[in-house]
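Reminder to self: tokens first, then the designed residues, so the page reads top to bottom the way the pipeline ran.
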């Protein structure tokens, strides 16, 4: 990974931490769930920013899951595209899902599960690479493949800034409170923040802060409608 890409990922993590510090006072002794927690390094930072009393994680790979457990997380080994979370409805105060949904065909099940385990009024912080970032727009204009969805890369979905914001708000299950971007590739981190603030939809990574509402989650119904209508499915 290039140094500039590493800087962007660090900036994304810093942005998520900043959002969590901003809502920390709204949750007494909060439980934090990191979906796709990997080795728990960012999870610990997020927990500290939020003042979490309990930290949970979902990770399918055994090695990183064990590392996360060593850092104090309670980790469930779950395949996000087919498995359910082991926690009860409304048992989590804040969910973080960072750089995960672009790797999944079936996003509808994990979106539903994250919403289910959140308590009413709980928060979700979700982030994905921005397909409409400036550098992706330039690549497309030159007839090149955008880096967010490389043919031989690990990402199977691409989300433009506004499209991802609208996905989170779909059906009113979440109220989007903040939608911003982190990084302005290929600018170094020291220069990128003013640009991503001024031209939000062209930043490198989209980060959305949303609050759970009383509305029913729409995502599994969306799958069922596709199946019944004979349309293309996005899973399996």
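Designed residues (236 positions):
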């Amino acid at each position: 990974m290039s140094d500039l890409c590493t800087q962007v990922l660090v900036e994304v993590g810093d942005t998520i931490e900043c959002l969590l510090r901003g809502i920390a006072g709204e949750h007494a002794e909060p439980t934090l769930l990191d979906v796709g927690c990997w080795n728990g390094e960012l999870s610990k930072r997020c927990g500290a920013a939020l003042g979490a009393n309990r930290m949970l994680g979902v990770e399918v790979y055994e090695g990183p899951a064990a590392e996360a457990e060593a850092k104090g997380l309670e980790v469930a080994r779950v395949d996000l595209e087919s498995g359910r979370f082991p926690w009860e409805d409304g048992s989590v105060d804040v969910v973080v899902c960072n750089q995960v949904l672009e790797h999944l065909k079936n996003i509808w099940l994990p979106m539903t599960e994250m919403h289910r385990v959140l308590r009413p009024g709980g928060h979700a912080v979700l982030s994905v690479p921005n397909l409409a970032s400036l550098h992706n727009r330039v690549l497309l204009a030159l007839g090149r493949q955008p880096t967010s969805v490389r043919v031989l890369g690990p990402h199977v979905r691409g989300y433009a800034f506004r499209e991802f914001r609208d996905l989170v708000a779909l059906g009113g299950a979440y109220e989007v409170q903040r939608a911003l971007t982190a990084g302005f590739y290929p600018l170094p981190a020291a220069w990128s923040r003013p640009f991503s603030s001024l031209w939000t939809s062209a930043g490198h990574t989209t980060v959305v802060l949303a609050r759970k509402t009383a509305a029913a989650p729409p995502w599994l119904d969306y799958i069922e409608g596709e199946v019944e209508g004979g349309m293309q499915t996005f899973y399996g």
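The CA atoms of residues 161 and 201 lie 5 Å apart.
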